[in-house]
Amino acid sequence: MITIDEEKCIGCGLCEKDCPAGKIRVREGRAVYRPECIQCGHCVAVCPRNAVSIPEYDMADVEEYDRDTFEVKPENFLHSVKFRRSIRNYQKRKLEKDCLERILDAGRYTATAKNSQKCRFIVLQEELDAFRQKLWDQVPAMADRIKEEMPHYAMMFKFLYRRHRDNPEDDGLFFNAPAMILIATDNPLDGGLAAANIENMAVAEGAGVLYCGYLMRIIEASPELKQWLGIPDTPIACCMLAGYPAVRYRRTAPRKKADIVWR
């Protein structure tokens, strides 16, 4: 699982000290790998001689640290967080494939519990119209199924369905977004962390997202939709509409004072 180049290794012990699973030891001046690690890659990242690799992964994807490239100034990052908006008005143009790939990379590189890396990212753009129609067709039956357990949502979904039925241009669930990104995983925290990075990257690309809990509930309550998406048995941790904003925000929005307990 881990390969250590003995000619490059200098036995500095940095990998041993930083290994969260304790699976690397320095013996006779060289690092030695012990089986059953979680392949987190800390040893790859910390090695000063680039002596460690994980053959199962694409090592060409590994980047060397460059302060000018990787350093994010705190004030810039905080400004970006404050400036983000939930987008409900999108341009008609689609997100380019390379742009989507970079956005999804931000999710792929997000930390996961025990380095499981078991988030599945589903991007609907070319087939979004077909999925949108299929979802609207499912809404009445789905609302009936949940009316006892979640009456408020059942009433809301039926209302949205009637409005869309009477005026197909009224797309009160999808907001005419050109793309939708779903994150499916058994660990909701993993999905939430990935979603945050995906949104930040989308904003950096000049795009934006809307977290849509209504869509997520509809899809989770519909076996037909989950089967169509190829995730019949995996929970959805997040559903985001994505695209280029059709509005321009000129400043950050105010927020309440932080509720912080200092001890």
TrEMBL record:
Gene3D superfamilies: 3.30.70.20, NADH Oxidase. The keyword Kinase does not apply. Coiled coil: none annotated. The keyword Oxidoreductase applies. Residues 1-29, 30-57 form the 4Fe-4S ferredoxin-type domain. One of its GO terms (molecular function) is oxidoreductase activity. Keywords: Iron, Iron-sulfur, Metal-binding, Oxidoreductase. Belongs to the nitroreductase family. This is Nitroreductase family protein. It comes from Candidatus Mediterraneibacter stercoravium.
